[in-house]
Amino acid sequence: MSDAIFSALATRYMLPEWVLVPQVRDGTGFSSSRTADAVAMNCYPSKGLEIHGFEFKTARSDWLRELRDGSKAETVAQHCNRWWIVATEGVVVRAELPTAWGLIVAKDGAIRTLVAAPPLPCSDAAGPVDRSFIASFLRCCLERAKAPTDEALRAAREQGRKAERKELEAERQRMQLRLNRETSEAQKAIEEFEAASGVRISSYDGTRQGEAFKAFQELREARRFDGIELTAVRLRELADSLEALAAEVPTVGEAR
Fold this sequence. Notes:
It is a single chain. The protein has seven helices and six strands; from the N terminus they run αβββααβββαααα. It starts with a helix and ends in a 10-residue tail after the last helix. The chain is an alpha/beta fold. Helix 6 (206-225) packs antiparallel against helix 7 (228-246). A hairpin with a 2-residue loop joins strand 5 and strand 6 (110-115). It has three domains: 2-147; 151-197; 199-256.
């Protein structure tokens, strides 16, 4: 919610007239103790180069604590020409507002002024400003300039997601091409086997066909290494396998 309030406030306190930064401490070093939710400095001499401080309130309980202990506001406001409470609707009752503070209401991404902030009694636009406070303000300006904006972060994340989706799609296409190629090669091998053997592998028991082929391979090995007796045994086993297979295979005229 505080980010939304700051974004709404930034639509009013804009360059080149204003420099608006969030989370400005009352000074630098160990002596600093309090932080303003936002500080804006006017850049036009004709407007007095005023410094405005802002405290955000989104909860009624937080506002009531602020009223009971105004030390935070006083610590930072002493460096400002005007002090504002920027609250969501219903948080601040107008009658409760200290006379030295202004009130801005934030609602639905927009802001409107309910009570104009008067010049603070201790402020003097023409007088010197505490250097430690100015150093804190400038540090916040530089840190904000270096930090990527929310829009830039969203754009970078979206670009990363697009690149990831593109890579995943490319990998899916590569896998599909490889699968198509392997399927085509397997189909070609099946067709060549069927043409040479006259047997349609896709229509019969692949286990029986595999056993017959294995027996044939073993026969070839036996003829090469084991001698005539073992070859005869292998031939009988092959004949049994072929006989079993023949019972399931149609005649040549019926194969297709």
